[in-house]
Amino acid sequence: MFDVITFDLWQTLLIDSLGHGIRRGELRLSGVKDELSKAGKTYSESELTEAYSECITQCRSLRSDNRDMHFDRQVKIFLDLLEPDLSETLGKRVFDSVTEIYSDAFFLSPPVLHDNCLEVLSKIKDMGLKIALISNTGMTPGVAFRRFLRETGALDFFEETVFSDEELLSKPSPEIFHRTLLRVEGRASMSVHVGDSIQHDVLGAHLAGMKAIWIEGFSERGDLSDPKMVPDVTVADLAQVPDALVDMLG
After folding, report:
1. Which of 38, 51, 60, 61 has the most CB atoms less than 10 A away?
2. How high is the pLDDT of residue 92?
């Protein structure tokens, strides 16, 4: 019997496209440009784009080491790349406004909830299993994801929602999985993680001592010579996860 089922978010429960991601970036930069202009700071589109790209690079570098940063720090890095100490000289009101614009771009070009998300979560809940969420956050903070999940009716299914920008850890760190299980009183050996990424979800779950269900189609299979990179079960779609869990239970 399993104790807990944990889910990834991106391309697992939420389905996104490259176009939406690009649009969110454009909305962030245009909104920030207008806000900074009101504060007497004018920057070209190329300057904003260069700072944004470098900020993304620095964030990805940190996450490649299984760590992450608070969302406010990410915004601070972006602003200070535009101009040294800009985040300080702007003052709290403008900084908070820029942070809100940066975050709320997610809602102006949002992903969509998987068509079967609520049905799948309901079925798993009816199986008597605890459900938790473990997600790397990228350029959007965990607080925005919780709001989106609440507005779409998914949040109440989760005992715990864990985001990398709040934990300062990113998948595949086993510690972010262990923290989640501790909070829901789950045992790694009796828990299963579901996600689309071999590198982040399957490897992370196995390093934490959990089973892993991989939703194929969004990432490469990875190094099959490493048993920790091989999912316990592979499914083609989120809708197949409840039946996969039943099969795993035997």
Report:
1. 51
2. 97
